[in-house]
From TrEMBL:
PROSITE patterns cross-referenced by the UniProt entry: BCCT
Family, per entry: Belongs to the BCCT transporter (TC 2.A.15) family.
Keyword set includes Chloroplast: no
Comp. bias intervals (Acidic residues): 540-549
Pfam families noted in UniProt: BCCT
InterPro entries given in the database record: BCCT_CS, BCCT_transptr
Subcellular localization: Cell membrane
Protein name: Glycine betaine transporter
Keyword Magnesium carried by entry: no
Organism: Shouchella xiaoxiensis
Amino acid sequence: MKSNESSIQPVFYWAVGILSLVIISGVAIPNLFETVTSNVQAFISSTFGWYYLIAVTFFMIVCLFIIFSPYGKIKLGKDDDKPEFGYLSWFAMLFSAGMGIGLVFFGVAEPISHFAINSPTVDEGTVEAARESMRFVFFHYGIHAWGIYAIIAICLAYFTYRKGKSGLISGTLSPLMNTDGLLGKVIDTFALIATVTGIVTSLGFGAVQMNGGISYLTDLPISFWLQAIIIVIVTILFLTSAMTGIDKGIRILSNFNMLLALLLLLFIAGFGATLYSMNLFTNTLGTYLQTLPELSFRIAPGSPESRSWINDWTIFYWAWWIAWSPYVGTFIARVSRGRTLREFTVAVLIVPSIVGFIWFSIVGGTGMSLELNDVISLSSLGDEEMMFGLLSTMPISTITSILTIGLIAVFFITSADSATFVLGMHSTNGSLNPPNKIKFTWGVILAAMAIVLLYSGGLQALQNVMIIAAFPFSIILLLMVFSLLKSLRYEQIRVTVQEKKEIRELRQWKRKQEKEAKKEKSANKKMKRKKGVEPVQESSVEDEDKPKQ
């Protein structure tokens, strides 16, 4: 029997080696590291922004096509597979893994930024700026974002559970190319690196915001060392959770996390600008749907200021979601076995988007209402402090701020916990039970990289490295989509051929049955006729034998 150690794949050592070089560079030459990564990131955003917009929109369109096509009836698994998790636990895991820390960090910060600091289309601080702000927030957290997660999860679940592939990113490309050799290992290494950078970015946001909350409540400063201590403490907690396994650890944390988030949302709705927020939600939902094509392809040629805004926000988000996608996609594929493509795609694409819209409308809407009515100047605070500034205008602000710090910590633990499982899975040839040794190693690397990038350049360094790593993986993701469509088409052809064969056989059987029935009916008629004629013949013969009177 193979040991756990013998199942470790070369991609693990390759990815760890490359990431170790990044960590060493960030420690040894932080200024040069920051300069180089900033230049590369700026080049990618400026030169390939059009590519990101088209690619992400393409992923979303493919998801909509799957919902309404005959492919939607196909199961993510064998035809008799049943879902492992109920809807509530399933949805909680989808949402916590997919958007967790981002919702809390940007819940107030992004709407306020678009409204009061740098509006993408209109003058700052106006009623129209508030509407435009929420429209772009919906765009960044709507069906485009979840379309990326959905499409990679479909690819992984379909090829793993229905086609019997390994569960690796390379396994999804088998209809297009041979990925059993070096090429497959290179693809899986890129996937691991992209996954790590996406997760590390989120963990960095979480640590910075927890630091912001602690600083807002106490006299402790916002500093790198406090953020490093936070990362170390939370790392110990999520590694403990990771050792318990997916069913126990992640499910319990996900459900608890959703409860905390719901309590915070209800509290802000109860004491915030609820009516304004719900009116904003309704209005923005309409304008979002009406202008979705325009938003999807907005690149602002000839307008450097608008293009800079798009690079800073839209391109950053698309790269972040792509970098997150191997992690989120692998995890939600793991917990979605047994669901049909249509059921899965509708759930992943629509439901979390609507919940995110409600979250931003209430949290961000309340923040903008406070700013509009001069209750508090949230725009003068740092991004990491804006949520706590909003809570300071409400009752029991200290308690709710502590609750929010706890919510961020649990999101941190949930994301990192899930990440260690996914990274371990991709390091062990798709094993659904990666050894604790591998999960522990990845947990340490995630923490070390988050600390080093914060040290070398703060949140900007995190974003730079993530955008750089996301670019090559986006090409792999496009190939995965073409591979999926090719395989689905072949399966549909096989199903159609089989259905035609069954229909043909059924018609032949019916014709045979009809023929036999006619034959039997004819035989019965002959039998009846024979029985009916014989007595008449006998009587007529007897009459003939009688003497004539």
